[in-house]
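WP5 quarterly update. Target: LytTR family DNA-binding domain-containing protein. Source organism: Lysobacter yananisis. Length: 253 aa.
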Amino acid sequence: MSERILAVLAEDEAPQRQALLEALAQAWPELDVAACEDGDEALQAVRALRPQVAFLDIRMPAVGGLDVAREAIAGGALVVFTTAYDEYAVRAFEAGAADYLLKPVSRERLDQAVARVRERLRQARPDDWRARLDALEAQLRPQGDRLIRWIGASVGDSVRMIGIDEVVYFQAQEKYVRVVTGDGEALVRTPVKELLAGLDPTLFWQVHRGLVVRVAAIDRVRRNELGRHELSLKARAEILPVSAAFANRFRGM
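Structure tokens (predicted):
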């Protein structure tokens, strides 16, 4: 009997997740797959299961594939990135991923990836994975004159172009990130961590794991009855939480 191999698969689009699961069942019958709907679930699965292989979508809200990859690699797993973007695929491969898959994934391409991963499992793995993953993350991060100026966000069945100076805050919400302005909101699929890397840190502060706020939009900071910090805004009525990890930003203000 062939040895069973354990894998974690993270894909936040249900149809694509199911299609990849079915294709993997045919291409690699010995593979046991724990399917995850988002990066948070995948991170928990990787920590609990310590898989030998991880199939990870690079771009997922809140916790992206790169974050999950770090945890998977620390446990000795090989990573296959999935992405709809050619530029991400090329960079992932250059960074030393076992392989990458462009969406929609063809059966022929999946067979090639499976063959490559199975061969890598039989060999010693390189020890420079973390450094190469750092390089990939740096390549994907906007810098200097590549800071975000405009955001194309979904509003119903259309796309709205939002200037970065209109944004009051970004908030991770299930599979999407809310882009909230003074008079409305829209949705993007770019993870909060990736957005944060493309924002001017003097203008936007992270105040919670999935929450980034424009500093100039903050009206006041106070403690609630439980002793936790909260933000009130100048242009919005909602109250936003501040986690203990970021509360020191407001000391002395």
